[in-house]
Amino acid sequence: MVKFRFKSIRTRTIVTILPMLILSMFALSALSYSYSKNIINAEIQDKMAYQLNATINNMQTILTAHSKIPESLARTIEPVGDKIDKGKYFQIIQGLLSTNPDTFGVGIWYEPYQYKNYLQYYSSYAYRDNGRILFSNDYDTKEYNYPEKEWYLLGKNTKETMVWTDPFFDKTSNAMILTTAVPFYTNNKFQGVVTANINLNSLQQKISDIHVGKNGWAFLLDRNGNFIANKDNQSVANHQIKNDSNVSLAQIGQEILANNNGNAVFSDDRGLNIVYYQTVPDTSWKLAIVISQEELYQKLNDYFMISVMIIIVLICVVVMVIYFYSLYITNNIKKVNILSQSMSSGDLTQTIPIKTVDEFGQMGTNLNTMASNLKSILLQVSESAKSVSETSVLLSDNAEQSAKATEEIAQSIQEVAGGTHTQLSLTDEAVEETKVMFVNIKKITQRIELASQSAKEALQTSIEGKADIVEAINQINLISQNSLDSVGIVRQLEDKSRKINQIMTLLSTIAKQTKMLALNAGIIAAEAGSNGKTFSVISREIRLLAENSTKSNSEIETLIAEIQEDISQVVKAMENADSSIQEGKQLTTKAGDSFSTILNLVDGVSGQAGEMTNDIIMIRMNMQKMVENMEVVSNFYGSSASSTNHISATTEEQTAAIQEVASYSNELAHMAKVLQQSVASFKLK
């Protein structure tokens, strides 16, 4: 099935409304035509009935006036019978003929042997002849034999007061004649028949003079279907309608003869004709009026043509009205389409010129308002996206810097950890050597008696011990310096972690603002409907990113707080270690001084053995204390190395977290760039 797709509302409107309008107009015209035709038919039937009745009444008047003559004559002769002779009858008939010019002749016809019992035929007949009334005895013959005539037998056998014969053509008068027969009686005994012949020329002329419209005519039939009169009264003698040359007229002849009244249709060389007919009382004749159907409905057809022309003009006017109205509609819709097309292509600078205050004007105003609001929203989104992009770039840069700084811190801490392990190793060696020295001094104490003999060996051992003490002092100084450097680096790490904390606070603020911006953008996109679906997706992604950033910032803040706490502990531990190192340094310095004293004493060991014994005891106590202090220092350095390792691991975790923040920042920057590109597709200025 083919589906028609209209390319314009104008065409759709015309194609939709015009057929219905045409059908409605023509249906209305057809109904009007049918209704008018029914009214005209009813009016024509009334007029035809009136015409027929008027003509029949006129005929009845003529026939009644004619019939009164034989009826009066019959009533006149009934009481007198054979007492009146022909001369008297002639006078009576002459007087009666003068009363009615249509009566052609009047006759008195007695039953054989009823006027006189010796007379078989007796009649009195008078007729008109060129204005004169003549009397004739030519009919009282056996040859004429009037008792056998049809008109006589009709009058004799009727039970009515009078009877009409069928019209016949009289060659003598060269006219159609109608005979009225009135029987007369004496003492209820049939005596004869009074007849009156009427010349139908006058009646024929009246029928011929009937004109209905321009070409309408009338005809008169007897009860057998013979023409009595028609439009030209030519060839009416012995002419039956059933044998008419017009087959169509002959076909309706039977219908006309079979019905008392009605109408029928026949055709001739001028088209269809309608016949209205009615029966003439007493004679059973059929009077018919013929009118051309074309002429009959000429005014109706003219009215129909005028109606069709008016309908065509109205249709043209309606088409023009529909065209211009649909043009007005399509022009307004075209403006809306132009605006919507511009908006769909991203151009929000276009507006609809408003010239009306109707629904189209209101729609244009609403669309302009919507475009303006959407433009404002997108401008805000564009500015916000720009700010997000810039902030993301700054965040990414800061995160990269933080990552680099954290990497440097981790590297420094690893170096510190390496130095601390070295210091720890050296301290362990010093402890072992100090223990060995303690054992040796103990041996010296035990062998103090042999000091003289072993002075040289003690001197040498003292020299070596002094060198070791000097080296231990140098190592302790190096450990102290490294410890101070570690404290400085750890403090720098603490300062940088504070900066990182400030950056994360800024990132948290940005994430909260981004989340708030995404929430507002989502609300605005929801209000924008279908046009804001894409922006709604973008705002949702920004909100998710903001939530993830907030979550990551929270984790990083927690991690940094833990790092700062560990750094504080490291600082405290290193400060304690530095204090112990200073004490060890002092002790080692004292030990060096003691070894100098021992060396001096060894030089004078021979004379000062007693003093040396006390000094050795003093040295042994100091060495024991020094060993204890060195063990404490070793423990502190072990703790410092462990803390440094922990700080290094924590710093590496922080570096990974900062790198993750940098990754999120890059992703946020990318999304902001995509958002800027999406907003940039709209023309806002």
Explain this structure:
- The chain has 685 residues and is α+β, with helices and mostly antiparallel strands.
- The protein has eleven helices and twelve strands.
- The protein has helices at 9-80, 86-99, 150-157, 201-208, 247-258, 293-296, 298-344, 359-446, 455-528, 533-603, 609-680, and strands at 103-110, 123-129, 132-136, 163-164, 168-170, 175-186, 189-199, 217-221, 227-229, 261-268, 271-280, 285-292.
- Strand 10 and strand 11 form a beta hairpin.
Offer a concise description of the structure.
With 685 residues, this protein is α+β, with helices and mostly antiparallel strands.
Protein traits:
five-stranded antiparallel beta sheet; 11 helices; 685 residues; seven-stranded antiparallel beta sheet; 12 strands; alpha+beta
Distance between the termini: 49 Å
Total DSSP helices: 11
Mean pLDDT: 77
In terms of DSSP E residues, the strand content is 5-15%
Low-confidence stretches: none
Report the biggest beta sheet as strand number plus sense, adding barrel if it closes: 7 strands, antiparallel
Spatial shape: rod-shaped
- Rg over CA atoms, rounded to whole Å, is 76 Å
How many strand segments?
12
**Quaternary structure of the protein:** single chain
